[in-house]
Amino acid sequence: PPTCSLRPAPRPSAQCPDTAPHQPGLSRLVLSDELVRPPRPAAQANPSPRTGARDQWSKKVDFLLSVIGFAVDLGNVWRFPYVCYQNGGGAFLIPYTLMAVFGGVPLFYMELALGQFHRVGAIPIWKHICPIFKGVGFATCVIGLYVSFYYNTILAWALYYLYSSLALALPWTSCGNPWNTPNCTSYFGRSNATWTPSSSSPAEEFYMRKVLGLQDSRGLDSVGGIRWQLLLCLILIFTIVYFSLWKGVKTSGKVVWVTATLPYVVLLILLVRGVTLPGAWRGIVFYLQPNWEKLTSTVWVDAAAQIFFSLGPGFGVLLALASYNPFSNNCYRDALVTSAANCLTSFLSGFVIFSVLGYMAEMRGVEVEDVAKDRGPGLLFITYPEALANMAGSTFFAIIFFLMMVTLGLDSTFGGLEAVITAVMDEYPHILAERRELFVLGLLTVCFLGSLATVTNGGSYVVKLLEEFGAGCSILAVVLLEAIAVSWFYGMPQFCSDVKAMLGFSPGVYWQVCWVAVSPAFLVVSTRGIAGPSQQKGKWARGAESSKAHGPQSSAPYLKWD
């Protein structure tokens, strides 16, 4: 265990009395031992469940669906397929699997075990683990707020698409609409269509001009006015979130029965439809064909970043959700089941996406690579909707696709905000214990006000700014500090003893080695997988990027000096 002072000396007592002789030129900075390792009373040598009137999940499946719903989000649909084909197709599955086994899943298991044993959120848990790291909990909450400022706006876009799909003819299929420009070119069903570098598709113009209104913004320096249709969609999203979270896990655990299972039904429907389309095999081969030459160091970095951000440790969500479990719940099995479901969903999404991209390539008469260049929102809001619009039964498939996107995002929003709610309420129970409904209302009001800039004409620029600089390296730093605090300060013997008290068996050598050495190294590697933007921005924007990139981390070293 670490010594309680900055000089190597034996500890005469738990309070570490200041007996060090004065050394010229050096200040005597002595850390209280309780800041490094809180003393465990003799009565708790064999820990038992913490008592108290804490809510619990009504059913075990409520918890599992909540965790799966949080982990499986929009990134599984839009990012994994792109990263996979960019990094060698089927060959990418090797580094992806290894990074999951030795990096992602151990961290996932650690957070579930910590939350279930200590039964508190991300802020107060540190007084049980290592109080000197309490700022990590505050940083987690700040990151959660950052993400809520833009993530729900993406759901508002999907909700607007869902509303627009309730028509006999989808509005992004033709060029004769008020928002279209002379450059609009529709090539589906036309053999004589001429495509030039300045041409744009109906789906692209619907997204860029009708939904986002980018033509009325000059960029981050002038985002323009509010898009009222998006504002109404955002209000509806926050209303759904509020009434799902206001009563705690008793209500959210029931909502996820719909929001966490519906995406799998839709994915299976889209998979069956996709593989029956002309040219689907071209996309699937392009997705899975291994390119062994791409197994370079960059691929391993991308695999580490993908598995980390997919499983989602560090956001405080796993701590919060597991804290409502019974003390003896088998969180080891839960970690394996939910992380496996997450990875398999990502793999399945690749078939859904690339079967349709193969169909588009067949219809356009081009290579799959030419239509697979879009990633992120462009894939979900331009490329895939364009393909859906040219299928038989396009309205039905568009409705279920965007309904799937909304439910995928809602689950992640539920988890992210529940992490903040649980952390703050557990930190200040004397103030908030009987006022959950009001606190949730106030928190969501703050999140809504923080999101207003993202529903302006230039709101997509703000979304990109927050997405690229709001979490990124900050969340990696938070998880790295968490892994170090648990493995090196709290100590493996104590943590394994806690797990044994819950499950009846201690984690094996494999898990301990991963927690102490492999997982921290995995996190360091993951930081290299975060690429910065290449777009030029104004000076104020670069300053905003810097503050957002380092803002959450600035809370982490919550040090107390005696």
Automatic annotation (TrEMBL):
<feature type="transmembrane region" description="Helical">
    <location>
        <begin position="93"/>
        <end position="114"/>
    </location>
</feature>
<feature type="transmembrane region" description="Helical">
    <location>
        <begin position="438"/>
        <end position="463"/>
    </location>
</feature>
<dbReference type="InterPro" id="IPR037272">
    <property type="entry name" value="SNS_sf"/>
</dbReference>
<feature type="binding site">
    <location>
        <position position="69"/>
    </location>
    <ligand>
        <name>Na(+)</name>
    </ligand>
</feature>
<feature type="binding site">
    <location>
        <position position="310"/>
    </location>
    <ligand>
        <name>Na(+)</name>
    </ligand>
</feature>
<feature type="transmembrane region" description="Helical">
    <location>
        <begin position="226"/>
        <end position="245"/>
    </location>
</feature>
<keyword id="KW-1133">Transmembrane helix</keyword>
<keyword id="KW-0769">Symport</keyword>
<feature type="binding site">
    <location>
        <position position="342"/>
    </location>
    <ligand>
        <name>Na(+)</name>
    </ligand>
</feature>
<feature type="transmembrane region" description="Helical">
    <location>
        <begin position="257"/>
        <end position="284"/>
    </location>
</feature>
<dbReference type="GO" id="GO:0006865">
    <property type="term" value="P:amino acid transport"/>
</dbReference>
<dbReference type="Pfam" id="PF00209">
    <property type="entry name" value="SNF"/>
</dbReference>
<feature type="region of interest" description="Disordered">
    <location>
        <begin position="1"/>
        <end position="23"/>
    </location>
</feature>
<dbReference type="GO" id="GO:0046872">
    <property type="term" value="F:metal ion binding"/>
</dbReference>
<dbReference type="GO" id="GO:0051378">
    <property type="term" value="F:serotonin binding"/>
</dbReference>
<keyword id="KW-0479">Metal-binding</keyword>
<feature type="binding site">
    <location>
        <position position="408"/>
    </location>
    <ligand>
        <name>Na(+)</name>
    </ligand>
</feature>
<keyword id="KW-1015">Disulfide bond</keyword>
<feature type="region of interest" description="Disordered">
    <location>
        <begin position="532"/>
        <end position="562"/>
    </location>
</feature>
<feature type="binding site">
    <location>
        <position position="412"/>
    </location>
    <ligand>
        <name>Na(+)</name>
    </ligand>
</feature>
<protein>
    <recommendedName>
        <fullName>Transporter</fullName>
    </recommendedName>
</protein>
<dbReference type="GO" id="GO:0098793">
    <property type="term" value="C:presynapse"/>
</dbReference>
<feature type="transmembrane region" description="Helical">
    <location>
        <begin position="469"/>
        <end position="490"/>
    </location>
</feature>
<dbReference type="GO" id="GO:0005335">
    <property type="term" value="F:serotonin:sodium:chloride symporter activity"/>
</dbReference>
<dbReference type="GO" id="GO:0005886">
    <property type="term" value="C:plasma membrane"/>
</dbReference>
<feature type="transmembrane region" description="Helical">
    <location>
        <begin position="304"/>
        <end position="324"/>
    </location>
</feature>
<keyword id="KW-0915">Sodium</keyword>
<dbReference type="GO" id="GO:0043005">
    <property type="term" value="C:neuron projection"/>
</dbReference>
<feature type="binding site">
    <location>
        <position position="71"/>
    </location>
    <ligand>
        <name>Na(+)</name>
    </ligand>
</feature>
<feature type="transmembrane region" description="Helical">
    <location>
        <begin position="396"/>
        <end position="417"/>
    </location>
</feature>
<keyword id="KW-0812">Transmembrane</keyword>
<feature type="binding site">
    <location>
        <position position="411"/>
    </location>
    <ligand>
        <name>Na(+)</name>
    </ligand>
</feature>
<dbReference type="InterPro" id="IPR000175">
    <property type="entry name" value="Na/ntran_symport"/>
</dbReference>
<comment type="similarity">
    <text>Belongs to the sodium:neurotransmitter symporter (SNF) (TC 2.A.22) family.</text>
</comment>
<feature type="transmembrane region" description="Helical">
    <location>
        <begin position="336"/>
        <end position="361"/>
    </location>
</feature>
<keyword id="KW-0813">Transport</keyword>
<feature type="binding site">
    <location>
        <position position="76"/>
    </location>
    <ligand>
        <name>Na(+)</name>
    </ligand>
</feature>
<feature type="binding site">
    <location>
        <position position="72"/>
    </location>
    <ligand>
        <name>Na(+)</name>
    </ligand>
</feature>
<feature type="disulfide bond">
    <location>
        <begin position="175"/>
        <end position="184"/>
    </location>
</feature>
<feature type="transmembrane region" description="Helical">
    <location>
        <begin position="135"/>
        <end position="163"/>
    </location>
</feature>
<keyword id="KW-0472">Membrane</keyword>
